Amino acid sequence: MRLLAEIVLVVLAGAGLSMCVALLPSPLPAPRRPQTAGPPRPGQLEALERLVITAAGNPVQVHAYLRPRLMEIASRRLAARGQTLERLPDARGRELFGDRLWDIIRPGRPFPEQRDGPGVRYEDLSAMLEALERL
Amino acid sequence: MRGSLASRTPGLLALAATGVVAGLASGHPELVLLAAPFLVFAGAGLALASEPRLSAHIALERTRLLEGEAVKTTVTVSNQAPRAVWLEFAPARSAQLGIEPSGAVAVRLAGGGEAELEFVVRPRRWGAHRVGPLLVRARDPLGVATWEGRIGVPVDLRAFPREQRLRELVVPLRTQPALGAHVARARGEGIEFADVRPFRVGDRVRRVNWRATARRGSLQVNDRHPEHSSDVVLLLDTYEEARDQAGGTLDSAVRAAAGLARAHLARRDRVGVVDFGGTLQWLEPAFGTTQAYRIVDALLASDIAFSYAWRDVEGIPLRVLPPGALILAITPLLDDRSIGLIIDLRRRGCDLTVVEVSPLGHVSPGPSSSDAVAYRFWRLEREARRAQLQALGIGVAVWEHDVMLGPALEGVNAFRRSARHGLLA
Questions:
Q1: Is A72 in a helix, a strand, or coil?
Q2: Which residue of B33, B339, B373, B375 is the best one to mutate when testing the A interface, meaning the one whose CB has the most A CBs within 10 A?
Q3: ipTM of the predicted assembly exceeds 0.90
């Protein structure tokens, strides 16, 4: 019991000393800064980021969503050269855009029969965009 | 004000209770003696503590300034209670207001006393801001109890956008029969030479071109283009913006709109504004310096308001878009609804020019490789969209981040000159 009392005495003395130090005037804590979320990204870009991922594993996504966008870009680029996508000969289309991109954007491309086939991986899409940038 | 125990008070009470309980349990009264000062201190503090009666007055050196400018703010805090209090206070913060000193200020305020402190407030962005109220934390002299709250009436501070100084403006296709600075296509009294034609009854003698008369053997007179004004409507797209830590496209758009409005008003044009986005607001076209202030005030209220509503031209009152007006659409081209409106206006025969506030400087590609591909894709799509507008005869001035707007407008004028016949159709 005496040992316990001595332990309590030592603890109280230490706590009392620290409390006396704490009672001295001290700088008050700085106010908390409001936490702000990061700036939102443009909806157009977010939609494209999702499309690039979903198009990798689904030919329907490629045909229904990726193809119209690629066609729009290709049409505008061709229009600057006085050409249209619809009247571009097959051989010329393959020469300008490359086989892979032309197979997607060529007029009259049929709807994919196999819905669970491979889509367009982003590495391939990158190469297609390069072809469009060159045009 | 909301009162509570200071953070140290529960510790004091716990320490005292431990000493008392240990002393009683072990039969050693010295432990109780050791704990007694803490108990007395906490008890005295709580007995003496009373809620402070504080009031504050916030005064700004001026309430209108340009964004980025600093204004001295004097804060006077008075304590109506008889007892002294320790205070720490700071003006309420917002992301748009820089306040120096940045931390809280601590003072001891005697009973019935008053303290005056100065802050420097600097609006980081244009807009209508509020300085205040003061966030206050008070404690009694022994530091046992604290009170927190807000005091003082906020003061409105209007920060005007820093305008682009523009020498080159988009030349309107059609002018109004009022004196201005644009050379009209019509012929009449003016300075700019237009043509030589045979004399007609009623022509003034001073307009006779004697050299041409001598050459042709009949009286010839000079025709001139009169200087007319035009109607200009600034269409501000507030559907969506791209933003980073340094700013956003809406900030730049408002600066551009303010600069364009002032420059056109200086050329005696009638200028109006349509804030087109989640909310639709407008200011009818008018002349003069007063209109310049009205426009800036209207622009300060511009903000991105999220909305699913699809608006079209029908929603804009006819008097806001007078026939023959030059419409300057200031947009980041981020929302299909605003692009649809621009195309709709052009198809209705409006003289339209797009000032594209480029978002590319505010948006960087995402971290993954697929995000980088998507970013390139987005850039190509934006170029295609621009080409689509140009194919409709709409001049597009691409305004990149941190670049002067003037050169971009020069490029648009060149485009409009080359496409003039199509534009007038």
A1: helix
A2: B373
A3: no
